[in-house]
Design brief:
about 25% strand, 6-stranded mixed sheet, 13 helices, alpha/beta
């Protein structure tokens, strides 16, 4: 059935339904979680907490992977396992083919130099200039003054603030502070860069600039980037792969475009609904009671797929389909669209046409939902 549908309608092929992928065995993975659980014991009368359960996935070398979840989903515990600040209760965390969860003392400190970290609130030392903040991990690592000076100059240029060398954090904007934080995280030439809600404290324009900078760092340096976030817009703009956490478990993971077009889990669907707002003029017209048109939202993938879908839906079912709203984004290197269609009710006011349209879309693995009605 799937093969026949794909051959008949090549431009409507937008990906197979997403399942949780068994990626932990990837041979070239930079980070692997192998049957991880993390339980925090009871403390001062408070009960223990199971933060992570049965975590099993891999992050490809050189990739940009988003880990998304609501507050309390386990994101912070996950990132602290990657950089060795926490040990798993069960399982192994393997970073660049080293079991970081088994390392201690000097071996752990050396391994942590290959894992950079950028933070939501920058974590800069107010008594140090931008250059001195960047230099700090190099001083701890025992670099010479000459090498530190050259490396700091190089990093300031890389993140676009070469002229802020002698400025203190109080003299920098939020975006400039985060650029210092990124430069500091890159100081020891890490293979992995962890971004823990790094844009949550920034305005939208600055957020876009920082995400563009991270994309450039990934291209130029080949650093594997892990984005810990609760913002689907961050994943939409930057990541190629996404892992969705809920209540300490992985509920979906895969290519971002697949997840956007075929969200399976309710938490994923809620994230997409949060970031896929409809025009105010359309929202004000949608009602629950039957009107003249049923309103259906459709997720499509591929350049021109939206136009092709509307044309074929109208031609094959003989419907007068209205395009009420459309949004096309480039996500994970692919075009992904959200179309809102108006399907006329039958002459008798019945919904046979809308039902046939939904069945047709389902036949071709196209994600669709009924939003209501418009007059």
């Amino acid at each position: 059935m799937k093969a026949a549908s794909m051959n008949a309608h090549p431009s409507l092929v937008i990906g197979e339904p997403v399942e949780i992928q068994d990626t932990a065995a990837q041979p070239d993975a930079m980070v692997r979680f192998e049957n991880i659980s993390k339980i925090y014991p009871a403390y001062r009368g408070k009960p223990g907490v199971s933060a992570l359960q049965g975590i099993e996935f891999a992050i490809a070398r050189g990739s940009i992977t988003g880990v998304i979840g609501r507050s309390g989903a386990g994101k912070s515990s996950l990132v602290r396992l990657i950089n060795g600040l926490e040990k798993p209760s069960t399982g192994r965390v393997v970073v660049d083919n080293r079991d970081i969860s088994a390392l201690t003392g000097r071996e752990l400190r050396l391994a942590q130099r290959s894992i950079g970290m950028i933070f939501q609130h920058f974590n800069l030392l107010s008594s140090r200039t931008a250059a001195d903040n960047i230099a700090l991990p190099l001083e701890i690592a025992g670099w010479s003054k000459a090498d530190i000076k050259a490396r700091v100059t190089e990093l300031l240029a890389l993140v676009g603030i070469a002229d802020k060398h002698d400025r203190y954090p109080s003299e920098l904007s939020g975006g400039q502070k985060q650029r210092v934080g990124i430069a500091r995280a890159l100081a020891t030439r890490p293979d992995v860069l962890l971004s823990d809600e790094a844009t949550s404290a920034l305005d939208p324009q600055t957020t876009r600039a920082i995400l563009d900078l991270l994309a450039n760092i990934n291209r130029e340096l080949g650093v594997t980037i892990v984005l810990i976030t609760h913002e689907m817009s961050v994943v939409r703009q930057l990541a190629k792969e996404v892992v969705v956490l809920d209540a300490g478990r992985v509920v979906e993971n895969g290519h971002v475009a697949d997840i956007f077009t075929h969200p399976k889990h309710p938490i994923t669907q809620s994230f997409l609904a949060d970031g896929d707002s409809l025009p105010v003029s359309l929202v004000s017209r949608i009602v629950r009671e039957p009107g003249s048109h049923a309103v259906i939202r459709v997720q499509v993938r591929g350049a021109g797929a939206g136009d092709t879908l509307v044309a074929r839906l109208a031609r094959e079912l003989g419907l007068d389909v209205s395009l009420l709203s459309a949004r096309i984004d480039e996500i994970g290197g692919q075009h992904v669209g959200s179309l809102v269609l108006g399907i006329p009710l039958d002459d008798s006011g019945g919904e046979g046409a809308a039902t046939r349209a939904l069945a047709w879309l389902s036949q071709y693995q196209i994600s669709a939902e009924r939003l209501g009605y418009v007059a």
